[in-house]
């Protein structure tokens, strides 16, 4: 372990971008437990954020500056999002409940600025991107291994009279695990099909994509699967119509021939009807929580705390709002990104999230027009991933999970390609002027 730590420090000093890539690659293991108990039972829980902060601090000590040309508005939006999260946490009903999510937001922010600061050429930007692909592969293999090893007591459902376990890797819930895979699949798939990258990288990206598909299926995360399918067809339908048509036909054939019966059962409308009143109660509760704290909400991570304090809507006043056949449920989050932000960070938080989304979309649009084919490929894949995240946000809160690190890192990578393209365009213009 000590040798690994020394090697990691050496890598960060010699190749800071590789340190960020390692953090992104290991992000799906953030909550991985060694089973030894005690303080260090989750070694990556603090190590990965520490890498982001360390690389950022290292760049500052070396006197490197974050690139501002064409990116100032995006950086302001990222800082505004982090600042609102901090303000909402400080004013939270229970600040201790905010620590985990706030630390994650601040870590993702540090990774974003670290990428812009130390990744000053094409190779380093691609190194961070490959870290995201490696993270997808690691998460996928972990889920597949979990599926065939068998996990007792796992979250699951009954299909055909038998219990079907859902894989979740090191994530807190299968839906979050599925959301992580669904977000990174378009990026890896686009890189695998890009002619602007080396053959070896394309092969690795292809392997990661192929491994992620069954892992996503084994998670049985309906929202993630549905969001990925819709977002991919819409995005690539707009950007690559012919490819989208062929992909849709191929996906339909594979789904018809190879979809497990358990997955078909998960998408059976009658099976999903029992979830409707539960989600309706949670979403309406999020609005009620926001109504009581409209400016900065109840604080990050305080949804469950605030939900448990809501008055009962049942005839039996001893029961709280949400009751199903198995007893009292206090949901961990609002099961909707937008309502969750509204409840936990108020209208100010939702405004910050909206601003961030608009400016990220702008940077992706600029990335699609850079001259570097690798940069265009990353932007193309990230566009589909962001659309997947936006749709999946209707059913799940993924922004404040392990996904935050690769999300902010990839946004910074595309922004870095845009900055490089602007710099090269300016240099070319100056050369033409002096001729």
**Oligomeric composition of the shown chains:** single chain
The CA-CA distance between the termini, in Å, is 58 Å
Q: Low-confidence stretches at least 5 residues in length (pLDDT < 50)?
A: 315-320, 323-327
Structural class, by secondary structure, is: mainly alpha
Number of helices: 17
Q: Summarize the helix and strand pattern as letters.
A: HHHHHHEEHHHHHHHHEEHHH
- The overall number of domains is 1
Proportion of strand residues? under 5%
What is the helical fraction, as a range of percent? Answer: 55-70%
Structural description of this entry:
This protein is an all-alpha fold and 435 residues long. The chain has one domain (2-429). It has helices at residues 2-14, 16-25, 44-61, 72-90, 99-118, 122-149, 174-192, 199-219, 222-239, 241-258, 261-266, 269-272, 275-292, 303-308, 337-367, 373-392, 404-434, and strands spanning 156-159, 162-165, 323-324, 327-328. Strands 1-2 form a two-stranded antiparallel sheet. A two-stranded antiparallel ribbon has the order 3-4. The termini are far apart.
Task: Quickly list its features.
two-stranded antiparallel sheet, 3% strand, 435 residues, mainly alpha
Outline the secondary-structure elements.
Layout: H1 2-14, H2 16-25, H3 44-61, H4 72-90, H5 99-118, H6 122-149, E1 156-159, E2 162-165, H7 174-192, H8 199-219, H9 222-239, H10 241-258, H11 261-266, H12 269-272, H13 275-292, H14 303-308, E3 323-324, E4 327-328, H15 337-367, H16 373-392, H17 404-434
């Amino acid at each position: 372990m000590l040798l690994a730590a020394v090697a990691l420090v050496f890598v960060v000093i010699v190749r800071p971008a590789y340190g960020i890539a390692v953090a992104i690659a290991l992000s799906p293991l953030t909550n991985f437990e060694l089973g030894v108990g005690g303080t260090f039972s989750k070694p990556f829980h603090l190590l990965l954020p520490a890498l982001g902060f360390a690389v950022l601090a290292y760049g500052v000590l070396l006197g490197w500056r974050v690139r501002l040309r064409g990116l100032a508005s995006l950086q302001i939006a990222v800082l505004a999002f982090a600042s609102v999260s901090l303000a909402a946490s400080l004013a939270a009903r229970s600040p201790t409940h905010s620590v985990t999510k706030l630390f994650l937001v601040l870590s993702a922010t540090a990774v974003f600025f670290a990428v812009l600061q130390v990744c000053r050429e094409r190779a380093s930007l691609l190194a961070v991107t490959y870290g995201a692909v490696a993270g997808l592969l690691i998460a996928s293999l972990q889920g597949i291994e979990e599926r065939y090893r068998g996990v007792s007591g796992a979250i699951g459902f009954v299909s055909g009279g038998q219990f079907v376990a859902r894989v979740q890797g090191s994530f807190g819930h299968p839906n979050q695990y599925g959301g992580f895979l669904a977000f990174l699949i378009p990026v890896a798939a686009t890189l695998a099909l890009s002619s602007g990258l080396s053959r070896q990288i394309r092969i690795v990206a292809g392997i990661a994509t192929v491994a992620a598909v069954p892992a996503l299926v084994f998670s049985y995360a309906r929202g993630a699967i549905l969001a990925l399918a819709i977002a991919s067809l819409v995005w690539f339908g707009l950007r690559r119509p012919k490819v989208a048509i062929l992909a849709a036909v191929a996906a339909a054939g594979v789904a018809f021939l190879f979809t497990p019966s358990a997955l078909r059962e998960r998408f059976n409308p009658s099976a999903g009807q029992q979830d409707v009143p539960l989600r309706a109660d949670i979403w309406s509760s999020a609005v009620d929580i926001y109504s009581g704290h409209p400016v900065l909400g109840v604080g990050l991570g305080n949804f469950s705390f605030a939900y448990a304090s809501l008055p009962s809507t049942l005839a039996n006043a001893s029961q709280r709002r949400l009751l199903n056949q198995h007893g009292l449920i206090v949901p961990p989050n609002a099961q909707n990104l937008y309502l969750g932000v509204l409840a936990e960070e108020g209208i100010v938080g939702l405004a910050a999230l909206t601003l961030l989304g608009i400016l990220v979309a702008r940077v992706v649009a600029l990335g699609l027009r850079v001259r570097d084919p690798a940069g265009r490929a990353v932007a193309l894949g990230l566009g589909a991933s962001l659309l997947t995240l936006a749709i999946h946000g209707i059913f799940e809160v993924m922004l404040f999970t392990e996904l935050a690190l690769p999300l902010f890192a990839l946004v910074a990578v595309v922004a870095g390609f845009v900055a490089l393209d602007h710099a090269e365009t300016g240099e070319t213009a100056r050369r033409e002027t002096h001729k």
